[in-house]
UniProtKB/TrEMBL annotation:
<dbReference type="GO" id="GO:0042744">
    <property type="term" value="P:hydrogen peroxide catabolic process"/>
</dbReference>
<dbReference type="InterPro" id="IPR000823">
    <property type="entry name" value="Peroxidase_pln"/>
</dbReference>
<dbReference type="GO" id="GO:0005576">
    <property type="term" value="C:extracellular region"/>
</dbReference>
<feature type="binding site">
    <location>
        <position position="250"/>
    </location>
    <ligand>
        <name>Ca(2+) 2</name>
    </ligand>
</feature>
<feature type="disulfide bond">
    <location>
        <begin position="32"/>
        <end position="111"/>
    </location>
</feature>
<feature type="binding site">
    <location>
        <position position="241"/>
    </location>
    <ligand>
        <name>Ca(2+) 2</name>
    </ligand>
</feature>
<dbReference type="GO" id="GO:0020037">
    <property type="term" value="F:heme binding"/>
</dbReference>
<keyword id="KW-0964">Secreted</keyword>
<dbReference type="InterPro" id="IPR002016">
    <property type="entry name" value="Haem_peroxidase"/>
</dbReference>
<keyword id="KW-1015">Disulfide bond</keyword>
<keyword id="KW-0575">Peroxidase</keyword>
<keyword id="KW-0560">Oxidoreductase</keyword>
<feature type="binding site" description="axial binding residue">
    <location>
        <position position="187"/>
    </location>
    <ligand>
        <name>heme b</name>
    </ligand>
</feature>
<feature type="disulfide bond">
    <location>
        <begin position="117"/>
        <end position="318"/>
    </location>
</feature>
<keyword id="KW-0732">Signal</keyword>
<keyword id="KW-0479">Metal-binding</keyword>
<feature type="binding site">
    <location>
        <position position="76"/>
    </location>
    <ligand>
        <name>Ca(2+) 1</name>
    </ligand>
</feature>
Amino acid sequence: MVKRASIITVLVLSLISSCYGQVTVGYYNNKCGTKDVESIIRGVVQARFSYEAAIVAFLLRLQFHDCLGDKQCDASLLLEGLGSEQTAVPNFTVKGYDLIDAIKAALEQECPGVVSCSDIIAAATRDAVVLAGGSYYDVPMGRKDGLVGLASNVDLPPPDISVASAIQYYGKVGFSALETVVLLGGHTVGVTHCSVIKDRLYNYKGTQSADPDLDAFYVFFLGNIICHNDPNAVDMFVFLDSPDSVLTVDNSYYKMLLAHKGILPIDNAIAFDPSTSGYVNDLANNNDYFLDLFGKTIVKMGLIGVLTGNQGEIRQVCSRTN
């Protein structure tokens, strides 16, 4: 199954890439004088990662929300203002804007008006993933930035989405069931809040008890250490991966799922639904397989609805149009 699925993913990725001839690996070669665009991006990311490793989570989420929120990887999420995508409820807790701004400023200093904000998102996310233990992957570039970003266009899946609905949601933008499971692997560095999972801990489906699918000891740990059953308690962060791997890109997330420690309802569901459980098992048992597919799937996500050529623009400042 692993070999067949991997071949299918590579074939699909090749087809997607061929649809955007103007988005290519090495797009910025010799376009910034003697400077290397990707090296500049990597340098800023490395500097930030050295004291804030959580940027890998920030950037993965930022790219996910930018690409899937309105089905266009066009940096529309970076636009500020009344009614912008940033004002949509699912985007309230997105972080990393300041890092993208810092990278943009560094690039504008070397070669003004050359590198798009949407390409910065894609390359910076890749660099953070690598720094956090993920495999290196080439990023096709040449995207242009969008001119509009509206909260009303944002459509992102909720944490309690069903497996069937998740497969349908991601399928609409070309992802298979396997790739859906791989994308959810981004939760390897993800977090949520106690408020999101309190019902699973204390009142699952109105039963006044915990979700029986959750490991009993894990329920005890979460309830007594992190998410107290008190309306006045601080809404604490809850990591979606193992405590010893929360900022590492690896397959431990899938191992957590198989141990009945999936925090979000969708996490738990993909581990035991017949349509996805086999993929979870394969990924949990082979870290190299996960890392390879994760890179390929992120690249594919980064090609959703890209603008190229005369479409869009290259913003001078990422938070506003020119």
